[in-house]
Amino acid sequence: MRYVAFLGSINVGGNRLLMEDLRSALRYGDFADVETVVASGNVLFTHDEAPSEGLAEKMAWIVKDEFDIDSMVTVRTRDELAATIAENPFAGDGAENVVHTLFLPDDPGEHQVKSLQIDHEGRGNERMAAGAKCLHIDYADGVGSSKLTGEFIARRLGMNGTARNIRSMKRILAKMDELDAGES
Q1: How far apart are CA 51 and CA 49, in angstroms?
Q2: Residue 175: helix, strand or coil by DSSP?
Q3: What domains are there in the chain, each with its CATH number?
Q4: What CA–CA distance (Å, rounded) separates 99 from 165?
Q5: Would you say the C-alpha torsion 36, 145, 105, 62 has a positive or negative sign?
Q6: pLDDT tens string 37-47
Q7: Per-residue pLDDT tens for 98-156?
């Protein structure tokens, strides 16, 4: 089964990690056909079919053990990634570089999302919508100037996540399809 892992805190904030080193470490951890897409913690791999949560925990443990980096890891199948892109309500009308999905380890609770929206009111033009194990965000005025930070979101949702923009997710999905077509 082919999966994609999204690793948080990779090549940001001083957590420098060469993708070749990451690929090598994961291969020794029984992850096969390991490829990285962009140097920001997007890992494509095959593995015996297993629960995504278990694969995420295993990968996070390897990253901590090998590189001393605490990384929030989420794992999705190809179909889960495609569904996440399709369910993003902002994907069609926002710029692909500012419309993001914050991948989460679990579904955000309705109460937590409402709290986040209320606490953010008046702080910016961002739009948010809950999704399946994610939060979709349109950073209308750009991510860099936004007050809707990962820390702000994590405090309200009670969990950390790692975000990718629509452009990156489409590129990753295309790469997964390319790899699957090459195996046929």
Answers
A1: 7
A2: helix
A3: 2-77 (3.30.70.1280), 81-168 (3.30.70)
A4: 6
A5: positive
A6: 876 789 999 99
A7: 999 999 999 998 999 999 999 999 999 999 999 999 999 999 999 989 999 999 999 99
Residue 166 burial (CB < 10 Å; 0-12/13-18/19+)?
A: buried
Paired sense of beta strands 73-77 and 42-46, if any: unpaired
User: Cα(4)–Cα(47) distance, rounded to whole angstroms?
Assistant: 11
Task: Write down the pLDDT at residue 91.
Answer: 92
Residue 77: both structure tokens together: 């199948």
Structure tokens that stand for 30 in this block: 């029984």
The DSSP H or E segment spanning 165 is strand 162-165
Cα atoms found within 13 Å of the Cα of residue 137, Cβ hemisphere only = 30
Residue 26 corresponds to which amino acid?
Answer: L
Average pLDDT over residues 170-180: 92
Token digits of residue 11: 């090549």
Residue 3 DSSP one-character state: E
Residue 66 near residue 23, CB atoms below 8 Å: no
- H helix or E strand, kind and range, residue 21: helix 19-28
